């Protein structure tokens, strides 16, 4: 995984604070052979979009402050939906 232990700790703390779960890191950051890329986080706690959005926003702001300006995408599971991104994140995601 192309994140330092310090960065992973910050991601874990933010996920627990805002959602009560440790986020999964997926996408290019879990592949040591790849370069660049944003930090893709998956919150495997189904929430309606209206409830998830404020939590996602607060978590994103906290991560920008603590990690510095980064491209960070936060994807939250939706109740009753199994989207392609959910399958991908669960299949390749690693705990932060």
Note the main attributes of this structure.
96 residues; alpha+beta; Beta Polymerase, domain 2; 3 helices; 16% strand
Order of helices and strands: HEEHEHE
Largest sheet: 4 strands, mixed
Specify the CATH architecture.
2-Layer Sandwich
Please give the radius of gyration in angstroms: 13 Å
Approximately how much beta-strand content do the residues carry?
15-25%
Number of helices: 3
Query: Globular, elongated, flat, extended or rod-shaped: what is the shape?
Result: globular
Oligomerization state: single chain
Strand order of the largest sheet: 3-2-1-4
Helix content: 40-55%
CATH superfamily (homologous) name: Beta Polymerase, domain 2
Detail the topology: elements first, then pairings.
Blueprint: H1 5-19, E1 24-26, E2 39-43, H2 49-67, E3 72-76, H3 84-92, E4 94-95
Parallel strand pairs: 2-3
Antiparallel strand pairs: 1-2, 1-4
Helix pairs in contact: 1-2
């Amino acid at each position: 995984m192309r994140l330092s232990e310090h960065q992973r700790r910050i991601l874990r703390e933010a996920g627990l604070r805002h959602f009560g779960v440790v986020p999964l890191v997926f996408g290019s950051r879990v592949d040591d052979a790849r370069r660049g890329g944003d930090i893709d986080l998956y919150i495997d706690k189904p929430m309606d979009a209206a409830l998830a959005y404020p939590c996602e926003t607060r978590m994103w702001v906290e991560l920008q402050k603590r990690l510095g300006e980064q491209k960070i995408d936060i994807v939250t599971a939706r109740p009753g939906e199994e989207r392609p991104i959910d399958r991908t994140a669960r299949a390749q995601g690693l705990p932060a």
